[in-house]
Amino acid sequence: MDMQKKIVMSGIRPTGFLHLGNYFGAVKNYVRMQEEFECYFMVADLHSLTTHPDTKELKTNVHRVLSENIACGLDPDKASLYCQSHVYETSELYLYLNMLAYIGELEKTVTFKDKVRQHPENINAGLLTYPVLQTADIILHRASYVPVGKDQEQHLEMARNFVNRFNHRYGDVFPEPHAFNYGDELVKVPGLDGTGKMSKSENQLATLYLSDDDELIRKKVMKAKTDNGPTEPNSPKPDYIDNIFGLMKLVSSAEVVNKFERDYSNCTIRYGNMKKQLAEDMVTFISPIREKAEAIRNDEQYLKEVMEMGAEKARKSAKATMELVRQAMGLNYFAPNP
Ligand code: TRP
After folding, report:
1. S-S: 191 plus which of 37, 201, 285, 289, CB 3.0-4.6 Å?
2. What does pTM read for this prediction?
């Protein structure tokens, strides 16, 4: 029954292009969750103001991130897909939560300390209270599950603290939000340069974006580091080779992967061929998403409808929560005495 469905909420920053790491690490989970839960997926345009005060590109970025997510399978009819700035209740709840957040705990946040280091010229209060705004996003829908990566764990822990403080002070309104991942789907998406995750890579050539054209995909894959191949049967794989296999497992068929595994084991592998195969399978995977995203991005009317529909659903849920919040906080001066 609909009433019983757990509520899911996540935010997507409108900075940067979606890459393969985002797809397998996050978006694929959203697409699966929208079938099972009541989902709210939000473009965090207000959060972006903490680090990107110049809003010239904001509209383009919001449109792009929405288009890319829809192209990956997010369905505006199933989930609520909306913009943070369209739901004013977010700002109201953020204000109340700020009174429950201690400066000391905010200053200890890892992401805050990182940003202070990166932008010493713009250490604004919004940056400090970033986790408070994020908490408002989540609990505005009384969400229990938040599909996010490890880098957001601390923010979620803070969200639980704020929730518990609120509930303790004013009465039980909010469930505790927890990070959510499908256990069997914790895939690692390695970069093409053999170092670390695709998302963390500083090297643009090591990351495959869902907006990359076919030639660029081929070029990036062919540049991936390899060597002369194993000389002893069944040798362990060096990291950079293991990574190529890892990427292949994401987009190629099991037969293809098995063939190259066998070739590796018996030392007949030709990495040039393997990369050509991987490049073609990547192109087959990425190009339909890229083309779909482009088509959506060019259809401003459709994007407007998506955002309006998403905001409407989000506001409905937000309004109901805020009634409970104001009531619990005693900000309902016209209600009859209890
Ligand atoms: N802070 C998140 C990030 O950097 C984005 C975000 C904003 C978010 N609001 C959220 C994530 C609410 C989950 C829930 O990616």
Report:
1. 201
2. 0.93
